[in-house]
Specification:
By secondary structure, the protein is of the alpha+beta class. It has one domain: CNF1/YfiH-like putative cysteine hydrolases. Strands 3-4-7-6-8-12 form a 6-stranded mixed beta sheet. The longest helix has 13 residues. The mean pLDDT is about 95. Bound molecules: zinc ion (ZN). Zinc ion binds next to loops.
Length: about 230
Amino acid sequence: MKLKESKLLSSIKGVTHGFSDKYLGDNASQIGHLLNLSKVTLLKQIHSDNVVFVDDIATETARLEGDAIVTHLKGCGIAVATADCVPILLASNDARMVAAVHSGWRGTLNEIVVNTVSAVKDRYGIEPENLKAAIGPCIASCCYEVGEEVGSLFSGKYPDTSEYLFEKGQDKYILDLKTANELLLKREGVSDIEVLDICTKCSENYYSYRGDGNGAGRQLSVIGLRQ
Ligand SMILES: [Zn+2]
């Protein structure tokens, strides 16, 4: 069993990471073991813009509510669980900190990834240009149709949505969440970004909320600093 990796994040010595698929699913302890991390901490994800820092390795999984998790603790993995939502992993070039972000359409609209980059700057003094980011397996533009109620929230908030929101007619839109999050990162000054070319709905290897319905399982995107 192998975890998918980002070449960009793998280039940072001192950082370990991986994206699971449906075969490893959300088995945090097994994935942590594969990555040589003593534990993997998750959040209770609530589609918010809350960024949570883990400063104590004893922090229990899912006791913290939020959608971005950040740590500087060595050996302490952090993760987000997703089915179609966008998982984003971040690390500083000097391997001082890592972050995992859960960004569905609500999180994208709430700019959770922007909040993460600015919280990292406030907390650690790390500039966005010294971060690398990987956008993991999620639903891609081939499969993500949304209605007027979602499309209009983006077109109402942003003057230019031409790179990620496409009108299909009959009040239907295609929303490209990967590109939307990539643009948010670039706007904040993060330019080292890798976008994994995987659609969770198209690929049989991944859980998909759109494809599998309410009972869909979750895969994990995990990152940590090597001990
Ligand atoms: Zn697709």
